[in-house]
Every structure is written in C-alpha cells, then in structure tokens.
Amino acid sequence: MHLADLQATRRAVRFDRDRLTIEDIVDIAQGRASAELSDDPAFRAAIARGADFLDRLLREDGNVYGVTTGYGDSCTVAIPPALVAELPHHLYTYHGCGLGQYFDAAQTRAILAARLASLAKGYSGVSVELLLQITRLLDAGLLPLIPSEGSVGASGDLTPLSYLAAVLCGEREVSRNGEVVDAAVALREAGITPLKLRPKEGLAIMNGTAVMTALACLAYDRAEYVLRLATRITALASFALDGNAHHFDEVLFSVKPHAGMQRVAAMLRADLPTDQWERNGKRLQDRYSIRCAPHVIGVLADALPFFRDCVENELNSANDNPLIDGDNERVLHGGHFYGGHIAFAMDGMKNAVANVADLLDRQMALLVDARYNNGLPANLSGSTGERAAINHGLKALQISASAWTAEALKLTMPASVFSRSTECHNQDKVSMGTIAARDCLRVLELTEQVVAALLVTVRQGAWLRSRVNPEMAPQPHLAAMLDALHIEPVVEDRRLDGELRKLIERIRGQAWELYA
Fold first, then answer.
1. CA distance 131 to 116
2. Which of these, 15, 171, 186, 293, could form a disulfide with 120 (CB 3.0-4.6 Å)?
3. Sign of torsion, CA 286 287 288 290?
4. Which residues pair with 331 in a beta bridge?
C-alpha cells in the first residue's frame, strides 16, 4: 500500500500520557490512523524534565546503568566520560544480528507505535525530539527493516528494536512503499535529519517490550474476528447438517454462567430458527463439534477480556530500564522490560484459537462424510448422474484443512516455559514473549486458512441442503452471508486455491460484519 493511500481519511491517534487501546495500534498498523505526538506544553515539559535531569546528573558525575556503565553483565564496567556519548551507537550496532523474515509493513508500524507509546509516558529520560523522529518515520512511510528472530523477551526486544534505533540515526535500511532503501538516503529524501542519540536514548528505544506488544495487539484483533466468524460458520454448519437448534437454548445456557460462552450461544440462537427442527427422524443430539461449539469458542470469548487487559496494560507502561523519575529526580533500576504478561497472554491465545481451528476441522469432517451429514452427498460433491463417479467434491480440501489444523495444534506448546539463561547469566530468566507472539500469529494464520476452507464447505453444504430438503432455507442474514462469500457451488471438480486466497484476504480485512 502506498503512502498516499495510507494518508487518506485517517484519524489521528494522540500520544501522550493518556491510555491507548489495542484498536489505536491496530488502526495505525493498518493505515487507518496517524500517530501524532501531543503538543500540550505540560506534556512536552514533563518529557524534557527527565532528559534534563539525566544531563545534570552526568555533569555531576552521576552513575547511571547503561549511560556511564556497560550493558547487562557489563554493568560493572565504567565508561570513561569522553566515551559516554558513543555508547548508544555501540548498543544498537552490536545488536544488529537479527535473522528470520522481516516484519511486514503493518507489524512494523505497530512496533513503532508501541515503542512511541511507552516512551511518551515520560519515564525514559529521552528527548521530545526522539519521540517526534518516530512520528516522522511513520508519516513518511519509512519503515525500518526489522528481522523477526533474535529476541528472548527480556531485557526487552533488544535485537529487533536495534533496527529502529539505527534507522532513527540514518543507518541500516528501510522499506519505502515496498522498496528497500538505504536509511540515510531515505531520510535525506524525506527531509528528515538523522538523530544523534543522547546518552540513554539507545537503551530507552531498545530496552522494552514494543515488538511483542505490537504483535499482541494485532493478534488480539485477528482472534476476536476469528471468534465471530467461527460462530457464524457453526450456525451455517448446523443448518447444512440439519442440526438441532435447541442445543443453544437460552435456559440451557443460563445455568452455566460463563459470560463469553453465553454470548456465543446467543449469537447462534439469533442465527438458527428452532421451528424447522420438529420433523420426525431428526437426531436428538448432534455430535460435539456442533452441540458443544459454544463451549469451545466460548473459552476464547471468555479469555479475550483478560488478554486485552494484559496487552493494553503493557502497551500503556513505561517498560525500559532504568526508568527516570524527572519530577523527583530519581533513577529507578528495575525489570519492566520483562514481557511475562504478554508471553502468558499469547501462549493462552494461541491455545484457545487452535482449539477453534480444531472445532471447525471436526465440523468439516462431519459435513463431507455421508455417514454423518444427514443425507448430503459424499465429500459434498455437487455432481449428479454419470459424472458423479469422477467428481470428488471437497475431499482434498478436507485433507488440507486437517493439515493446517494439525500444524496449528503443534504450535500450542507454550513458549514462555522455554526460558533460557543468556548474557553471562545476567538475563538468567527471560519471558520468550516475542516468540510466543510470533507463534500466536502463525496459529492465527493457519486458523484463518481453516476458516477459509470452512467457508467454502458451509457454502457448499447449505446449497446441497436446500437441494436435498427444498423446504429448508437459512435465516435471511445467513443467506446474505452465503451470498456475500461470492463462491460458486462446486459441481465439477475445480482448483480452489485462488478462491481460498481471496477468502483469506477478506478474512484478514474483516470484510463481513458479524453480530453486534
């Protein structure tokens, strides 16, 4: 997406000491919002007080970790006064060892916004100019090329954030409208003067949880949409299977008071009429992947408020070390760079999301199996007559969905329990929060692929159900959803990958409005 497109009709997200939301970061990431540093004089004065206090402390021979000492286990190494100004450059330089795929444009914008949010709390001892430089990168569409691998999540996201620090100073590379450009050239052509970092500013940029927090914001947004889409798919699967809508009865769910689960059941009730169920010969109890869908999807629904609290509290924290209390002129050495809350939230989210993928995969297995789909053709093939013998419907799609589900389930091993002792046992207990967040996004990616497969499947199943039972018709909003998928029924076998990719793009763009 080009910068001109991103800048059209965007709302402004103001960065100051006020609380930000997940949606603020997601909107910046997706180009729907710009990042603006507050011009309130009181706010800017508060930021300046921290930097000014540090300057005065250095003039008075103060001893500050990472400013007049080396980093990490090297904190006992005193830096000669004449070399203090060079230390930030060395910090981001020696951390330039990231590998793996680069974060994409949306993820990178979210990372810049999350780091700006933390520094704007006013406890990092940085200048207003540094905060403005981050907004300039976002405004100009100059996105640091940040490798995704190399962070253990404490002492923060040091290695990936070193790429932000370097670009702010005109070093390394940026992505500009999808093209890789030398940072010095890109800044010059945008009219941006490279920064010369003040003594603590390298540490302030790098020593924090911005990468994992940014990814967690994006993961939350995607998980919440998957929840609603999985609920709608369940309703369509129940219709296609000629299922028992009474499984979602209000009184039934009133006696198991999990609020999220109850909300899922309420959405299913709104989608599924009960008056069509009263025919003879219908199965009294549907199999678990339909009957217990609120209990599976509801786990994610009930966990999301907790995940939101974890992510937004981290987003709105000052999380580098040391923190600078400019008002009371204190240097506070601690460990707020530790990403344990994000790690736990992402480990939990990927577990709940993968369970939803598994639920949908089981629904698909019922739909394509003529033994369990209540009168629909095997593999949901739409072919009839002599040609039915050579057509195989959704047989291969079910295999692929099972593969995607299995890979998602494999990734549910919690990353947070794999702490490693690093950096001469200074970082001897680390969060693995960034790995957990990356894993969660991969589980979401795989789950969205399963969702796309199920959208094809329920579209085919609903079409065939109306052919097998002409008296049956989905509720108007379910019928509207089916029409909005723009998927033609599969009569003759055809390749489906192009349609699946289009569906995935629409899923990630949250193309369909689902429930209130």
1. 6
2. 15
3. negative
4. 324
Tell me how crowded residue 285 is: count the other CB atoms within 10 A of its CB: 11
Spatial distance between the Cα atoms of 354 and 300, rounded to a whole number of angstroms: 10
**Who contacts 255 (Cβ-Cβ below 8 Å, separation ≥6)?**
none
Q: Which two tokens stand for residue 490?
A: 């599969």
Residue environment code for 490-506, b if the CB has 16+ CB neighbours within 10 A, otherwise e: beebeebeebbeebbeb
Of 65-79, 254-268, 356-370, 388-402, give the lowest mean pLDDT range.
65-79
Task: Return the pLDDT at 279.
Answer: 59
Distance of CA 448 to the CA centre of its chain: 13
Residue 181 φ then ψ, to 5°: -135, 145
**Sheet with 179-182, edge to edge strand ranges:** 142-144, 173-176, 179-182
Quick check: helix, strand or coil at residue 148?
A: strand
CA distance 392 to 372: 17
For residue 259, what are the CA distances in angstroms to 97, 233, 296, 345?
46, 21, 13, 19
Six-digit token pair at 77? 């190494």
Question: What are the C-alpha distances in Å from 76 to residues 40, 66, 67, 69, 480?
Answer: 40, 10, 12, 7, 67
Identity of the highest mean pLDDT range in 242-246, 253-257, 275-279: 253-257
Residues annotated as part of the active site: 65
Specify burial of residue 410 (Cβ count, 10 A radius: 0-12, 13-18, 19+): exposed
For the chain, the residue count is 516
Per-residue pLDDT band for 428 (boundaries 50, 70, 90) equals confident
Contact predicate 410/323, CB 8 Å: no
| pLDDT-derived band at 57, boundaries 50, 70, 90 | confident
CA distance 147 to 250: 49
Q: 181: phi > 0 → left, psi -120 to 50 → alpha, else beta; which? A: beta
Which pLDDT score is estimated for 64?
79
Query: Do 360 and 230 meet the contact criterion of CB atoms below 8 Å apart?
Result: yes
Residues above pLDDT 90, as percent of the chain = 85
Going by pLDDT thresholds of 50, 70 and 90, the confidence category of residue 82 is confident
CA distance 343 to 200: 27
At residue 366, what is the residue type? L
